[in-house]
Design brief:
By secondary structure, this protein is α+β, with helices and mostly antiparallel strands. 38% of the residues lie in helices and 16% in strands. 49% of the residues are buried. It binds flavin-adenine dinucleotide (FAD). Belongs to the FAD-binding oxidoreductase/transferase type 4 family.
């Protein structure tokens, strides 16, 4: 596969999915076929479903959690008697104890007895593929002892019961495109790969929603339902699966118009650590019934349970779209213009930024579609418009006049044809792949992901560029500037300990700066193992302590994706 095939989102997606299937060729069962239209599976029953012997209700799980952990129980007692919430106890008594390797292997063998021998792999390549990401600088050297492939919620529940009983960590795996070590296995355990749970279970076009299994890839989903005029708007890596997207609360270029993943999840079916199956809510667009458990699991990175079904809201595909690009003399000018556009209320579909280094890379190494034009090697805003054709014309006119008012010399270029629109936007979508393809052998890329209130955006981007400039390495800014979210990609040689440490310090300073600006250390890539310390700095120990208590309530043995988000 050549690089230009690689950078095409879809072919890349298929390549990755193909290679995943290839790595499982030893599996004898047939690839599950995708159900079309209404599925035979009755999703509405799932709310009351409780499978297998180990299943208990939510209440029972919570009580079990409280009883199992002395610290948690004491917290409840104090709360009842009106005392203060106790400070977290980072003592060794609350430290989880995991099974040894032999016991983990027994768990895998027991899973094979229940799910079938062909649903478990011990293949070294498969373990490596599931334990390491070239996109991430936060890899752990440990590997799971086995990868298991469930096909149903019941299978997942059985896996959980076995692992929980034997104190074996479970690490859910979607497509492995997350970048903060989110699916790595620092405590080994069993990796649960959802790629055989890739069915569309029910499609309700009149309700604008779809019920899917977690292994469904979002690009495939959108192709499958395109004729209905609806789509799922979140657009992270083209390989990503719905389960991973839910669990990282992902977003992408469409977030400026459509919000983030949390805004598109109606309900979830989740298997808890002990095998209990819960459904977080039913299917109406709104509800004020009870706690918002859906949001608890969105962005939880698989630390609270395994998502086995997702009801997603869908949006109407816009009647028309258009794209414009506009270079600016400095990154600060570009970011300031972005802020002006955001404040204007023009309903842009996306507002993205790439710095002069990214633009130079496009000229040098972009795909043929992207190299049809010579790009100005200056910081550039990419704007997407969507709506009715007339509405777009009016939005474009307002945008042109606004940009003229802040930067009279800025040469705004609008796509004149659909092909040109595609080519212009391809430049933004391919940028990460193009940059990665230029990485010198042995070098790694460290990508930050901070977000700040938009009024501080120009300032922090400008500051970050200067900080990275001091390192004397390749560093480039790219981002979803419409959301105040941007990434700085730095290429470094991991064999050069000094350089690696300098990059690490720079990343940390950037995150501290974001926090000083009331921002966040993770706009869309979640915490994983890479940003646990930063999360503590962002939220404070008391808030993390509440998260810890919530986790213990549903996962008293701390077996769900341990070592992620917080310890
Ligand atoms: C080229 C590229 C571009 C990207 N662009 C973006 C972008 O624009 N915006 C963005 O937000 N992200 C982006 N990402 C990051 C990545 O695509 C997202 O984080 C995505 O949501 C991960 O999905 P996945 O299926 O690959 O999940 P994985 O990486 O497999 O897993 C992610 C996390 O979810 C957990 N998990 C997976 N499945 C389940 C489940 N069924 N139940 C419970 N937990 C589960 C895993 O344990 C892990 O913690 C990009 C990545 C790449 C490589």
């Amino acid at each position: 596969m050549n690089r230009h095939q690689l950078v095409s989102g879809l072919s890349w997606s298929l390549h990755r999915r193909g290679s995943r299937l290839g790595s499982r060729r030893w599996l004898s069962h047939q690839q599950p076929t995708r159900a079309t239209g209404e599925a035979s599976h009755n999703i509405n029953n799932a709310g009351n479903a409780s499978t297998g012997n180990g299943s208990r209700g939510w209440g029972a799980a919570a009580v079990g959690g409280a009883m199992g952990i002395i610290g948690f129980g004491a917290g409840v007692l104090l709360a009842k008697t009106g005392g203060d919430i106790p400070k977290p106890k980072p003592d060794s008594s609350s430290r989880p104890h995991y099974a040894n390797r032999a016991e983990m292997m027994h768990a895998a063998e027991e899973i094979a007895q229940v799910l079938g021998q062909d649903a478990v792999s011990y293949d070294a390549d498969v373990l490596e593929h599931h334990g390491h990401s070239d996109w991430s600088t936060s890899n752990s050297p440990e590997r799971a002892v086995a990868v298991v492939y469930p096909k149903s919620t019941e299978d997942v529940s059985a896996i959980a019961r076995i692992c929980n009983r034997r104190n074996v960590p479970m690490v859910p795996f979607g497509a492995g495109s997350s970048v903060e070590g989110n699916f790595s296995q620092p405590h080994s355990g069993i990796c649960v790969d959802f790629s055989f749970m890739d069915k569309i279970l029910a499609f309700h076009p009149d309700d604008l929603d779809v019920v899917v299994q977690p292994g469904v890839n979002w690009v495939d989903l959108n192709k499958h339902i395109a004729s209905s005029g609806l789509f799922a708007p979140m657009d992270p890596s083209p390989t990503a699966t719905v389960g991973g997207m839910v669990s990282t609360n992902c977003s992408g270029t469409n977030a400026f118009r459509y919000g983030t993943m949390k805004d598109w999840v109606l309900n979830l079916t989740v298997v808890l650590a002990d095998g209990t199956v819960i459904k977080t809510r039913r299917r109406p667009r709104k509800t004020s019934a009870g706690y918002n458990l859906t949001s608890l699991f969105v962005g939880a990175e698989g630390t609270l349970g395994m998502v086995t079904e997702v009801t997603l809201k869908l949006a109407p595909i816009p009647q028309d779209t258009s794209v414009a690009v506009v270079p600016f003399p400095t990154i600060r000018d570009a970011a300031a213009a972005a802020t002006t556009l955001i404040r204007s209320g023009i309903p842009l579909a996306a507002l993205e930024i790439m710095d002069e280094k990214q633009m130079a890379i496009l000229n040098a190494n972009g795909s043929p579609a992207v190299r049809k034009r010579r790009w100005a090697e200056q910081p550039t805003l990419f704007l997407k418009f969507s709506g009715t054709t007339e509405g777009i014309q009016s939005d474009i006119a307002r945008t042109a006049s606004l940009i003229q008012s802040v930067q009279p010399q800025a040469p705004l270029h609008f796509a004149r044809t659909k092909q040109e629109e595609h080519d212009l936007w391809a430049a933004r979508k391919e940028s990460l792949f193009t940059m990665t393809s230029m990485r010198p052998a042995g070098h790694e890329m460290w990508s930050t992901d901070v977000a700040v209130p938009i009024s501080r955006l120009a300032e922090i981007i400008d500051w970050s560029k200067r900080e990275c400039g001091r390192l004397g390495i390749f560093a480039s800014v790219i981002g979803h500037v419409g959301d105040g979210n941007f990434h700085v990609a730095m290429m470094y040689d991991p064999r050069d300990a000094e350089q690696k440490a300098a990059v690490g310090r720079c990343v940390h300073r950037m995150m501290q700066m974001a926090l000083e600006m009331e921002g966040t250390v993770s706009g869309e890539h979640a915490i994983g193992i890479g940003k646990k310390e930063c999360l503590r700095e962002e939220l404070g120990e008391e808030t993390i302590a509440v998260m810890r208590r919530l986790k213990r309530a549903v996962d008293p043995k701390w077996v769900m994706n341990p070592g992620k988000v917080f310890d």
